[in-house]
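Input.
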Amino acid sequence: MVVEVQQRTDVAHVVTAAGADHLSIDPQEAMEEYLRDQLPGPLAEMLASSRAFGYLAAATPGMRELLTAGKIWELAQDERRTPGADPYDLVVVDAPATGHGVAVLAAPRTFADAAHVGPIARQGATIADMLSDPSRTAVVVVTAPEEMPVNETLALTEAVREEIGSPPALVVVNGLLRDRLREEEAARLAAARDHPAVRAALVAHARAREQRAQLRRLRRHVGVPTVTLPFHPGEPDLPALTRRLAEAVR
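Output.
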């Protein structure tokens, strides 16, 4: 439940009933904030308002990802770069899909290695060090117990390991169906599969079995802890469901 809408020095965001802030990171705003922090006021304003500079920054490979990672780093600091902004106890990032998410993780180290020296090299290395430190950053992968998502999760785990030097801390397998039939029950029902209800039950049983086979494959190869969350049909009581799912993850 949203109880308050504010405009802070970061970005427009909402404050939830539990006191958690929800923010959206815009790379353009992050770039303007970075320029104001790093350059004298008039020069920062000139570059921020320059269409040519904006086009150049947008065309630079990996720049948007670097700016996003830089803002995430800034949000996680005890001493915020944003004037008047308070520190956060914890920053949880809903990252983009696999390829773009890995690009955000990789951008700071890539720019630091390319620049070698200077402020971009120093700041890129600082951000990369935070992302690769398991005591400060944990990558949590959310997937589904199906063949293609499991394949993608296995590839993503290796990509994260290569880019930040450590694997994800956790894999959350979402939407696990309940298997309501034992094998002997399914075998007996197979004789009456022409009945629509029986056919639906057998289809659900087969899908639940396939999900568990994919879950076993994932756990056999992923090499990091996994937790499963059940599938909830219909329109659930969202606050109660959120509490149950949070308890399962905890």
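Residues 1-12 have pLDDT under 50 and may be disordered.
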